[in-house]
Specification:
515 residues; alpha/beta; Ferritin; Rossmann fold; 2 domains
C-alpha cells in the first residue's frame, strides 16, 4: 500500500499559511500599499471580536450588567473595548464580501468606527478599500481568509492570535519592501535583545522614534512572560511619519495597550518634542542612522545638548543626548546606532562621546552587532546602553564599561539577512545582567566580552568599539564612515582640479601648434 505524502504547508504555523495565501491575492498592488489593506482587515476583525464578546455579556444582562444597553457605546468604553457600529461588525462585512461595492462598505465601516470612538482612533484606520487597483473579488477572498483564522478559544483568544498574526505580517511586509520596510519595522531579534537586557518590569517606557510600535509590544510581552502586570508600565512614543504612526496605533490597540501617549507630528522629536517634560524609566529606540537633515542648525543652543552641540550634518549624538535628557535619575536606555558613532572624532563628536563617558558617567554597555540584521541598511550597527544611576554612585560597576562583541553570532536566513536565535539573545543578556551584579557570576571571555576600566578607555582615546577591548580588533574597528567619506571627497576634488589643470595645459599646447 502506497504511503500518503504529507503536505508541508499543513505543518506550517498559521501565520505563514495565512501570509502565503494573502500574498497570492496581492496581484498588481505593491507591498507598501497592500500592507494597509491586509493589516486594516485584521484590525477590523480584532475589534469586532472584542466588541462581540462584551455584546454577548450585555445581552445576557447578568449581575452588574443588568439593564445595560448593548448598543450604548459607553458600556464598551467602561470595559476598555472599542464600540463597533452595526454596519462595521465583522459579521456584516463578511455577509457583504461578495458584493461589488465591498470596498466602499469597508471604507465606510472604518470611518464609522473612528467616529464612534473619539480621539483614540481618530485619523488612524485605513480607508483604501474602494480604490480601483483593488479587485473586489480578491478583497472578498481576503475577507474569507481572515474569517477563517482559527481561534483556539473563540473570541476570548482573538487578541493573542490576531496580535501575533499582525506582528508577523508587519515583519513580512518589511522584508517585501526592503529598504523602505526598515522605516517602520525593527527586526524582532534586535527588539527582543534590547528588551531582555533592559527588563522593563514597571514604569514609563519611551520611544521617541517608535515606528510601528514593536518596542512597546515586546515590552508588554516581557512583562506578561515574567508574571508581571501590564498596568505597571505606561508607554510614551513619537513618530514623524503619519502612515507609520497609524500602524503603531493599530498594532498597540490590537494588543490592548493604551496608545494615547503615542504622538504624531511631521516635525519629529528634535523640532517638536511631544513629551518635553517626560523623565522616563526606560528608553528603547532604533533611530534612523546618520541623519543629515535633522534641523540641527535651528537647535544650536537647545537645552538637551548637555554634553556638547551635535554636528548639524549628523543626528547620532543629538539622539544620544535626547535620550539622556529624557531619562529619570535612575532611568536606563538601550538604543541602536550606526557603529561609526563609537569612533567618530569629526565635528566635535569625539568630545561629546568623551563627555558622555566622563562628565555624564552614562555609558553602561556597548554591544557590537552582527552584519545583515537590518532590512534597510548595510551600515554596521551597535547597541548603546545608558544608565543614569551611574552618576549617583549607586551602580555596582563604578568606573567600568561592559563591552560585548557579538559580530560572529547569529545565523543567515537568506543571502542578505541574518537573525539572532533565542539562545544568542539570552547569552548576551545574561552576560550583561551577571556583570551588573558585580560578583563571581561574571568573568571576561576573550573574543566575546570584557569589563574595561576607565583607564583603558582613556588610553584608547574614548573609542568604544568592543573588538578593541575583548581582543578581536579588525579593519572594521578602525573604519569611520564620516572620516573616510570626507577624505575621499577631498581626494576626488583634488583629482578634478588636477584634471582641469591638465585639460587646460593640453588646450594651450594645441593652440601653439601651427596648422
Amino acid at each position: 500500500m502506497a504511503t500518503q505524502k504529507k503536505n508541508p504547508a499543513a505543518t506550517e504555523p498559521l501565520e505563514k499559511q495565512l501570509w502565503r495565501a494573502a500574498d497570492k491575492l496581492r496581484k498588481n498592488i505593491d507591498a507598501a500599499e497592500y500592507k494597509h489593506v491586509l493589516l486594516g482587515l485584521i484590525f477590523l476583525r480584532y475589534i469586532s471580536d472584542s466588541f462581540e464578546l462584551v455584546y454577548e455579556l450585555l445581552l445576557k444582562g447578568e449581575g452588574d450588567l443588568a439593564d445595560a444597553d448593548p448598543e450604548d457605546a459607553d458600556e464598551y468604553k467602561a470595559q476598555n473595548v472599542f464600540f463597533v457600529p452595526p454596519t462595521a461588525r465583522w459579521s456584516h462585512i463578511q455577509n457583504q464580501a461578495k458584493q461589488p461595492g465591498i470596498g466602499k462598505s469597508i471604507d465606510a465601516a472604518m470611518d464609522a468606527i473612528e467616529q464612534s470612538n473619539g480621539e483614540q482612533l481618530k485619523g488612524v484606520l485605513p480607508k483604501v478599500y474602494a480604490r480601483q487597483n483593488l479587485d473586489p473579488v480578491s478583497l472578498g477572498e481576503l475577507i474569507d481568509l481572515i474569517s477563517n483564522i482559527a481561534l483556539t478559544d473563540a473570541k476570548s483568544r482573538s487578541a493573542d492570535v490576531l496580535g501575533h498574526v499582525f506582528e508577523y505580517f508587519l515583519g513580512e511586509f518589511a522584508l517585501a519592501e526592503g529598504k523602505k520596510g526598515g522605516q517602520f519595522y525593527t527586526p524582532r531579534p534586535i527588539v527582543e535583545l534590547l528588551v531582555e537586557m533592559l527588563q522593563p518590569y514597571h514604569g514609563r517606557v519611551f520611544d521617541p522614534c517608535c515606528g510601528s510600535g514593536g518596542m512597546f509590544v515586546q515590552s508588554e510581552k516581557f512583562v506578561t512572560e515574567h508574571q508581571g502586570r501590564i498596568s505597571d508600565i505606561s508607554i510614551y512614543g513619537q513618530e514623524s511619519n503619519q502612515t507609520t504612526w497609524r500602524l503603531a496605533k493599530m498594532n498597540l490597540a490590537i494588543r490592548g495597550i493604551d496608545a494615547s501617549q503615542v504622538k504624531w507630528n511631521t516635525e519629529g522629536s528634535f523640532l517638536n518634542d511631544a513629551h518635553m517634560a517626560l523623565k522616563s524609566d526606560f528608553i528603547i529606540a532604533n533611530p534612523p542612522f546618520n541623519v543629515s537633515d535633522w534641523s540641527g542648525e535651528q537647535l544650536r543652543s537647545d537645552a538637551r545638548w548637555q554634553y556638547g552641540t551635535p554636528p548639524a550634518g549628523n543626528a547620532n549624538f543629538a539622539w544620544l543626548q535626547h535620550f539622556a535628557y529624557h531619562l529619570s535619575p535612575t532611568g536606563r536606555a538601550g538604543v541602536v546606532l550606526a557603529k561609526g558613532a563609537l569612533t567618530s572624532k569629526t565635528n566635535g563628536e569625539g568630545e561629546i562621546r568623551r563627555a558622555l563617558i566622563e562628565q555624564g558617567n552614562l555609558i553602561d554597555c556597548v554591544v557590537n552587532l552582527p552584519a545583515k540584521l537590518f532590512l534597510n541598511t548595510q551600515i554596521p550597527a551597535a547597541l548603546w546602553f545608558m544608565n543614569k544611576a551611574r552618576a549617583s554612585g549607586a551602580h555596582a560597576r563604578k568606573g567600568e564599561i561592559l563591552f560585548i562583541d557579538a559580530r560572529n553570532m547569529g545565523q543567515l536566513i537568506n543571502r542578505r539577512t541574518r537573525t539572532l536565535s533565542a539562545d544568542d539573545i539570552q547569552q548576551i543578556a545574561n552576560t550583561y545582567h551577571a556583570w551588573g551584579k558585580n560578583d563571581d557570576s561574571y568573568a571576561d571571555i576573550a573574543g566575546f566580552c570584557a569589563s574595561a576600566p576607565m583607564s583603558r578607555i582613556t588610553e584608547l582615546d574614548y573609542v568604544l568599539t568592543p573588538g578593541r577591548y575583548v581582543g578581536l580588533p579588525d579593519e572594521e574597528d578602525d573604519f569611520n564612515f564620516a572620516e573616510r567619506f570626507t577624505a575621499l571627497k577631498a581626494e576626488f576634488a583634488a583629482q578634478l582640479q588636477e584634471e582641469a589643470t591638465l585639460n587646460q595645459a593640453i588646450l594651450d599646447n594645441l593652440a601653439k601648434v601651427k596648422a
